[in-house]
Amino acid sequence: MTPLLRFGLIISLLFAVSSCEQLLIEKDPADTPTNNFELFWKEVNDRYTFFEYKKIDWNAVYQRYRPQIKDSMTERELFSVMATMMNELRDGHTNLQSDFDVSRSWDWYLDYPANFNANIIERNYLGKNYEIAGPFKNRLLPNDMAYIQYESFMGISDAEQLGKLIQKYQSVKGIIIDIRDNTGGALAMVDLIAQFFVPQDLTVGYERYKKSAKSGDFTDFFAYQIKKHESISYKGKVVLLTNRKVYSAANWFASVMSELPNVTLIGDQTGGGGGAPFSGELMNGWKYRFSGTQLLNLKKEQIESGVVPDIKIDMKKEDEAAGKDTILEAAIAYLK
User: Fold this and answer.
1) How open is the CA angle 292-298-304, to the nearest 5 degrees?
2) Is residue 88 a contact partner of residue 56, using CB atoms and an 8 Å limit?
3) pTM above 0.70?
4) 73-76: Cβ within 8 A, 24+ apart
5) pLDDT, tens digit (0-9, with 9 covering 90-100), for 265-302
6) DSSP for 296-308, written as a single string
7) Helices 187-194 and 159-168 sit at what angle, rounded to 10 degrees?
């Protein structure tokens, strides 16, 4: 075989292999409004974890919204339809993010009293002489009580730093932890804080995951355990202040703490958010997220709709006008 013929044969073989690969590799769907809608609906259908709990018929939702999708529609028109469909989930963990807007479902706190005034706390309770230990604003109140305000579970705090804070208040009559308006963050922070309050290694709830697109097809329950800190443990009374804007990791923290016999929840029901979100991206670059797991309390009850306080109290308008926090004052009276 001549070199020229051999070269021609090699080129022919390469083209043949390339053609076979093209036949075997399925092309990505075109970036059209229809394909983005279909992909998004299917992702939610396959992975969302609260259809049964909320009694949502996602197939019926599809039938209502699919006729509104046209390949000729604009980006903003598509976003409006998909965001409205997403709000059918009634879930604060659901977002659709484009370069011009982020969809959100915030009815879980906007439809309820605020029950918190940060200005009153700063001026009339924390004052000018409070300490700041990482994310924890704290001070000793009259009547031998400690007040700790924790505004966000975002980021990871240093365990040693928090341990020193708990040690500082080891002998006080009681600790008030204020997580009102805390919309969550890292679940690891729940473990880090709770370890200083559990009496021993303790199962505080359960988690489970969706196995397939089949309705109700979940994994077994996995025990969620908090391991006690090796040397520091606060055994006195603890009051946890909550309102409707306590969400996600903060909601889970409220559930965890509610399982401890020396902890009392005072305020309003939390906003919920009983599952960690799953994230993805559409063909047009829009990002989305929705609940992809379930966290349940020790009785295996859902906390997606919130944790009910032991003592339900709302802020009084007359107290707020006078610079008083009704809920914090109730906690102080309880510890007295």
Assistant:
1) 35
2) yes
3) yes
4) 73/33, 75/100, 75/284, 76/100
5) 999 999 999 999 999 999 999 999 999 999 999 999 99
6) E-TT--B-TT---
7) 40
